[in-house]
Design goal:
Distance between the termini: 46 Å
Oligomer: single chain
Structural class: alpha+beta
Strand order of the largest sheet: 4-5-3-2-1-6
Number of domains: 1
Number of strands: 6
CATH class: Mainly Beta
Largest sheet: 6 strands, antiparallel
Helix content: 25-40%
């Protein structure tokens, strides 16, 4: 069965992909940088000044007690409420202690091929709260934060 996105022209798909690539945009697509590789919700939190790459943080359904044993790592999670984010199936957690660098061109290709990967935008207030956690995360190098305007 064909999807609505199948009827869009390539130019429209490119335009849509570019317009959705913005700070606070939330996407859901398959990534290979998790163990195991899987479909994940991601939030764009920064772009480099050369417009070559972007960084995302991941949304998880829960805080994994096996990965985040220390309180300092647990505290880098931001509770994202379903009631304020209709793209979520249930309350979830944004892990702000790790950034995932991706090439903009590659992300655009994913969006163009699967229009439904874009699921929404965070409110400005929510994004600012997440940004504070990222800024304070000792697990992210200052150089990386500066590169993506998150310092």
């Amino acid at each position: 069965m064909e999807k609505l996105g199948d009827f869009f022209t390539d130019d429209f798909r490119r335009s849509l992909a570019k317009s959705n690539l913005q700070i606070g945009a939330v996407f859901r697509y398959f990534v290979d940088f998790t163990t195991p590789p899987k479909t994940k919700y991601q939030i764009i939190v920064g772009f480099d000044n050369q417009s070559i790459s972007l960084v995302t943080v991941l949304i998880n359904t829960e805080i994994n007690p096996n990965l985040f044993k220390k309180e300092s790592l647990k505290n880098l999670h931001f509770l994202l409420k379903k009631e304020s984010n209709d793209f979520l199936e249930y309350d979830s957690f944004v892990y702000c202690g790790q950034l995932h660098e991706q090439k903009i061109a590659e992300v655009e290709k994913v969006i163009q091929s699967q229009i439904s990967t874009f699921v929404g935008n965070l409110s400005e207030e929510t994004f600012e709260q997440i940004k504070v956690l990222i800024k304070n995360a000792k697990s992210i190098e200052e150089e990386t934060k500066e590169k993506y305007n998150l310092a």
